[in-house]
């Protein structure tokens, strides 16, 4: 067998217990209550010869005893309560076979009250059958189900227009419904694979194209199910092994979990997210014997690592180079099932893979009633509605956007120990900071405009980077004096000054340098958000650390590269550091060690070896005007008195 | 060779996942061992999940009316498999709701026995080997199924369960039923039993033109006509039959809703 064929075989076709190979698909049947889902399912089972002997007769007898006409739906609604109320309550899984495949059929209830059960069913489906009553046409619930299928990532939908007998098998009526539902679904990016006129009760269009619908030339229901594709192959995606548990039953320390995507082998170099620790897989363990060869998606495995690392439930194991993002901030599109609406500020429990963490809903960005498809209010997401939310996590976790990996890009929200909603990860850490849970920032009594009006400028972080001795501090001080003279509110934050106090606990390792920059950026951003111009003078040699600072300060950030040549810097040596470093008594000094990473794109570059301090300060001022920090009109305070 | 999975591999992997979730999320678990083909597969799967050992007790709620072959099987394999076996007896039938039909009343002893065992040991999770394809009310089950304080099942208010995210926080005093083989069929059980060479009670194999398809109490379980004397023959028989698995269980046929009434009260 060649590689491509065997790869396909591993996903698209599952060997059945008797050794034959037939693809297996799971489908969900959804639609408005009373539009005939259970009847269609009963009919499908009958037509495909999947009913146990005597079942039909038993149901006929039950119907007769109750004095009711025979209903195909009795077949599924086996529960007493359901027969009494005439509605299907929960999802039921039923297996049957078509000509080409094994089908797991998930019957989902249509009653609005039981939407959570529909989602429970539909979330596991490869494809869906959406049913519409020919007489009633497209209803809110129909549209809502269409939207939810789209939301759950179900890509294939066959639409059936049922009860055609009630509209005299009218091709016109069918055409109108077909056009309406097609437009709705296509608008959601979910073009129907077929729209089929049927009468489930009598069997028209289910397994056979009967004379009553001879004007219809598309597939019948069984053929449409035959054409559904099994789920997309997960083996082809990057490795994701969420850790379920660590077992130490004997001298082995086994990391256990299910491979959600990709594959692994003993010897692979892996990274444990979100911590980013690296190890090699020493062995793949199993009982009664250990498996040999590569392990693919879907397998529940146990592995041992070549070194003792702290690994815990909820971590995600990936291959180095294709790891998921670690984040404390997630944007997600969710559906909400709980009675209590989900509001901004809500404290929730979020579960993604095997990771569980407390979280806060930072913002509700959109809230939609999927029946209306109109924007509802955006303060909260009501029960059975959907929305987009911004979530801040108490602990970092590893996640992928849903488009990159459907298995590690979906989450559920728990309220009081019960799943209350679920959804898809749209993006991971969109450059915003996580807001720690239980911390409620107190806002300033003043609005930013009030300060701007007084200072004649907006808040900003002016970040000067460059080699030691390049002139950053000198320039920063000149700029501070200049802005103050003009009535502004500049504040100098010098890297060395802060290291004498706030950052006194930090050394010069890459981690400590990164933390030093992070704290500088946080303080500067706080000042900028309160209307001041924070002037930061810090070598900040790492491009990545400066990028992190820019993310923190966001649109207030202005970066200036003080690009004075290295030899000039060393000649100046204002603090005597170069001399000490050359003498070997100052370790980890940036400049001699060539570890300064010059910026690639900044708001301004200045070479102090070729201009005066005053000219340089003027140039910075012009840049601040150009980029909207300084108001470029009158700066003469006296004129306003 | 690609890491392909067949049908049984996929079932096995899913069951192991469920076992590990239950063990990770609940404090005091027990596995209900009825000695039948399903619970034997379940124990095998637990040993796979935990690399050879079952890290929680196996509980046999004993009606003391099982077949002698079943007791012999229990005593032998609890030792061989290294199980922490707990056997608890059911109350007498006189203590059971007299409004139930006879076979159901007899079966309800198990529900009462189970409640007593739950109280005695304080389990917050009970792993049970039910399957969706056995019976219509079981088809409605969740994988992690919350039970009320009295052990009851509220089929009308089950929490949502999707994407293998399970609800695992029973209220204080209540417990969860965990169903690691809910997604298996009768044929799957036999095919897997054969592949893994899992021991079975010989009553499942045909003798004198009859065999047991499902084992309950000796007085209310009956053999069905069959010539299948090997697992291979059972699989062929299942391919062709349309007789429901529980056809030999008297209680299922007494009244339309007898089984459902039992299940709502906490029966498996």
Automatic annotation (TrEMBL), chain A:
Chain positions recorded as ATP binding sites: 466-473
CDD domains the record matches: APSK (cd02027), CysN_NoDQ_III (cd04095)
List of catalytic residues: 540 (phosphoserine intermediate)
Gene3D superfamilies assigned to the protein according to its UniProt record, in alphabetical order: P-loop containing nucleotide triphosphate hydrolases (3.40.50.300), Translation factors (2.40.30.10)
SMART domains: AAA
Pathway stated in the Swiss-Prot or TrEMBL entry: Sulfur metabolism; hydrogen sulfide biosynthesis; sulfite from sulfate: step 2/3
Top EC category: transferase
Pfam families: APS_kinase, GTP-eEF1A_C, GTP_EFTU
GO BP terms, alphabetized: hydrogen sulfide biosynthetic process; sulfate assimilation
Keyword set includes Nucleotidyltransferase: yes
Annotated ranges, domain Tr-type G: 22-234
Molecular functions per Gene Ontology: adenylylsulfate kinase activity; ATP binding; GTP binding; GTPase activity; sulfate adenylyltransferase (ATP) activity
PROSITE patterns attached to this UniProt entry: G_TR_1 (PS00301), G_TR_2 (PS51722)
Keywords carried by this UniProt record: ATP-binding, GTP-binding, Kinase, Multifunctional enzyme, Nucleotide-binding, Nucleotidyltransferase, Phosphoprotein, Transferase
Function statement: APS kinase catalyzes the synthesis of activated sulfate.
Record-stated family: In the C-terminal section; belongs to the APS kinase family.
NCBIfam families named in the record: apsK, PRK03846.1
Protein name, entry field: Adenylyl-sulfate kinase
Automatic annotation (TrEMBL), chain B:
Enzyme Commission number(s) from the entry: 2.7.7.4
Residue span(s) of domain Phosphoadenosine phosphosulphate reductase: 29-221
Gene3D superfamilies the record matches: HUPs (3.40.50.620)
Gene Ontology BP term (one): sulfate assimilation
A Pfam family: PAPS_reduct
Database matches in InterPro entries: PAPS_reduct_dom, Rossmann-like_a/b/a_fold, SO4_adenylTrfase_ssu, Sulfate_adenylyltrnsfr_sub2
Catalytic activity: sulfate + ATP + H(+) = adenosine 5'-phosphosulfate + diphosphate
GO molecular function: ATP binding; sulfate adenylyltransferase (ATP) activity
Keywords: ATP-binding, Nucleotide-binding, Nucleotidyltransferase, Transferase
KW Nucleotidyltransferase (keyword) present: yes
Record carries keyword Nucleotide-binding: yes
Family note: Belongs to the PAPS reductase family. CysD subfamily.
NCBIfam families, sorted: PRK05253.1
The protein, known as: Sulfate adenylyltransferase subunit 2
